[in-house]
């Protein structure tokens, strides 16, 4: 693939120093731009236009340019974005230049699948521990990790330096474990538990509800199949 340079220009050095608060929807799109840029880098592309990057990301050029303005990207027409620099710039804005050490609580099918997923490391996330309360599971190996006893949650979190936790747990125990994680000093939690969790101010909690996502997908699929309903 050849580089394209038909519109907005390179990001000025130091542009991200005073980045604005980024709206949640724009944050989500920035992760998509980062993935597209990583692909371009692997293909040896040095520069890319806003039109090409927007097309690869499934958004409009105007949306792309507005999103990049949140991280201090303004540029000059006719030059194109420098792919490597823009990739680093977005990664820095998303906090991906820090060391993120992730612990997974729950070594069921989902927890094991997450622990074995190879894409986390390439995106800056190091899976450092996995826990379970089932003594038949404790001590078994998941990839290169050995399952730790959930009773030892706090000391293992401290020893590994985990600063993010993924909860892959049943609803009945999720809040109790979440409270322990917070008490251990972790301030970033991703929950797959099918229940609303309560956390104190200063703790970032993201909930992934696959059933809800499927319901939303079903809604859009139904509208696509029935044009009269869409109107």
UniProtKB/TrEMBL annotation:
<dbReference type="InterPro" id="IPR036291">
    <property type="entry name" value="NAD(P)-bd_dom_sf"/>
</dbReference>
<keyword id="KW-0805">Transcription regulation</keyword>
<keyword id="KW-0238">DNA-binding</keyword>
<feature type="DNA-binding region" description="H-T-H motif">
    <location>
        <begin position="32"/>
        <end position="71"/>
    </location>
</feature>
<dbReference type="Pfam" id="PF06971">
    <property type="entry name" value="Put_DNA-bind_N"/>
</dbReference>
<keyword id="KW-0963">Cytoplasm</keyword>
<dbReference type="InterPro" id="IPR003781">
    <property type="entry name" value="CoA-bd"/>
</dbReference>
<feature type="binding site">
    <location>
        <begin position="106"/>
        <end position="111"/>
    </location>
    <ligand>
        <name>NAD(+)</name>
    </ligand>
</feature>
<dbReference type="InterPro" id="IPR036388">
    <property type="entry name" value="WH-like_DNA-bd_sf"/>
</dbReference>
<dbReference type="InterPro" id="IPR058236">
    <property type="entry name" value="Rex_actinobacterial-type"/>
</dbReference>
<feature type="domain" description="CoA-binding">
    <location>
        <begin position="95"/>
        <end position="196"/>
    </location>
</feature>
<protein>
    <recommendedName>
        <fullName>Redox-sensing transcriptional repressor Rex</fullName>
    </recommendedName>
</protein>
<comment type="similarity">
    <text>Belongs to the transcriptional regulatory Rex family.</text>
</comment>
<dbReference type="InterPro" id="IPR036390">
    <property type="entry name" value="WH_DNA-bd_sf"/>
</dbReference>
<comment type="subunit">
    <text>Homodimer.</text>
</comment>
<keyword id="KW-0804">Transcription</keyword>
<keyword id="KW-0678">Repressor</keyword>
<dbReference type="InterPro" id="IPR022876">
    <property type="entry name" value="Tscrpt_rep_Rex"/>
</dbReference>
<comment type="function">
    <text>Modulates transcription in response to changes in cellular NADH/NAD(+) redox state.</text>
</comment>
<dbReference type="Pfam" id="PF02629">
    <property type="entry name" value="CoA_binding"/>
</dbReference>
<keyword id="KW-0520">NAD</keyword>
<dbReference type="InterPro" id="IPR009718">
    <property type="entry name" value="Rex_DNA-bd_C_dom"/>
</dbReference>
């Amino acid at each position: 693939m050849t580089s394209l340079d038909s519109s907005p220009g390179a990001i000025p050095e130091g542009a991200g120093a005073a980045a604005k608060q980024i709206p949640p929807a724009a944050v989500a799109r920035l992760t998509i731009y980062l993935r597209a840029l990583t692909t371009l880098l692997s293909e040896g592309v040095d520069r890319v236009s806003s039109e090409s990057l927007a097309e690869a990301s499934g958004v409009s050029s105007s949306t792309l340019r507005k999103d990049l303005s949140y991280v201090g990207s303004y540029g000059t027409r006719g030059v194109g974005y420098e792919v490597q620099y823009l990739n680093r710039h977005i990664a820095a804005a998303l906090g991906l230049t820090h060391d993120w050490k992730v612990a997974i609580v729950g070594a069921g099918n989902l927890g094991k699948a997450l622990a074995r997923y190879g894409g986390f490391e390439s995106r800056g996330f190091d899976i450092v521990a996995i826990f379970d309360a089932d003594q038949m599971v404790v001590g078994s190996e998941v990839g290169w990790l050995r399952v730790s006893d959930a009773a030892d949650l706090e000391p293992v979190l401290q020893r590994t330096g985990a600063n993010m936790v993924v909860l892959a747990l049943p609803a009945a125990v999720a809040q109790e474990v979440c409270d322990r994680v917070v008490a251990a000093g972790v301030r970033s939690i991703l929950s797959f538990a099918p229940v609303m969790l309560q956390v104190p101010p200063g703790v970032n909690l993201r909930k992934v509800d696959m059933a809800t996502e499927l319901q939303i997908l079903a809604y859009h699929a139904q509208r696509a199949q029935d044009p009269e309903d869409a109107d």
